[in-house]
């Protein structure tokens, strides 16, 4: 039996779509053009939000993507790319307890070095540090909170030079350990069960909220007394929009229509002049994915093109997802950080 066979025996399907995540020729081709793996982080974020959290990621430690595009050797680049993606995503609402399970196949010669990283999380996390201060702050938090790291990651090195039967047996034991942790209740909330997709239809479209004044609030077309709406976050600023909930691939159209309709028609006695500043909060209470930025670009450049002063105040975790998305270049000048005044 092969590793593929033991996966099939345990009811684990192998992903065949999303070529940017598993096709080595495709990955190498894109890296040669872009000289980075940002495209993989973007697609991986989209995969998790649209399909579900993969039960297991197996990486061949022989692969050295550093040689692509003239970059320095880096046999851990794939692992680092996926781990950074998990760290960023785990900061988003609904994914706080996300987990990445990894098997890293290595030669006997490389096993001691990888086992040292596996057994020393701070040492492994140090290899993830980037030139991005925000991402580094997330990584540094994990360095000082190893129990949290172990909740987020399960990493096992596997000596691929062992006899085939032993490799298969060890793979089966790792899969069994993951299943056992699932049964013990240690599976991260909000992730898919092994071998099954996450049903995106379970998540309703985000609400579009606007604080009209001290007493009233607009919620998806209705004018309500603020005191009558129990599930709104505190501290909503008067005169600002808030998108609360899932603004992701399957809800883009509905959320976009609600927001553009509110701006164009106005809210109660509030009418929006094309020249005025319009603030939209896309904070920790809003879940976005790799498709949200492109949808926003469509709204800003076409549907609401007359409104030139729309500001998107984003949480750090959501901004990171936008930065790794196709439409980022078209909305970047509209973005401000959540802790920054527009």
Structure description:
There is one protein chain. The chain is an alpha/beta fold. The protein folds into 2 domains: 3-186, no CATH class; 200-337, 2-Layer Sandwich (Transcription Regulator spoIIAA). It is built from 14 helices and 11 strands. The protein has helices spanning 3-9, 19-22, 24-34, 38-50, 77-89, 111-119, 121-126, 133-143, 146-152, 164-186, 252-265, 292-303, 316-323, 328-331, and strands at 57-60, 100-106, 153-159, 207-211, 216-219, 222-225, 241-247, 278-282, 286-288, 310-314, 335-337. The strands form 2 sheets. Strands 4, 5, 6, 7, 8, 9, 10 and 11 form an 8-stranded mixed beta sheet that branches. A 3-stranded parallel beta sheet has the order 1-2-3, sandwiched between helices. A hairpin with a 2-residue loop joins strand 5 and strand 6. It is elongated, with a radius of gyration of 22 Å. Mean pLDDT is 84; it is low at 187-201.
Key descriptive features of the protein:
single chain, about 350 residues, alpha/beta, Transcription Regulator spoIIAA, 2 domains, eight-stranded mixed beta sheet, 14 helices, 11 strands, about 15% strand
Secondary structure: number of strands: 11
Could you tell me how far the N terminus lies from the C terminus, measured between alpha carbons in angstroms? 59 Å
Shape: elongated
Number of helices: 14
**What is the mean predicted local confidence, pLDDT?**
84
Low-confidence stretches: 187-201
Question: Main sheet?
Answer: 8 strands, mixed
Q: Rounded to an integer, what's the Rg over CA atoms?
A: 22 Å
- SSE string, helices as H and strands as E: HHHHEHEHHHHEHEEEEHEEHEHHE
Strand fraction equals 15-25%
Tell me the helix content. 40-55%
* SS class: alpha/beta
Total of domains: 2
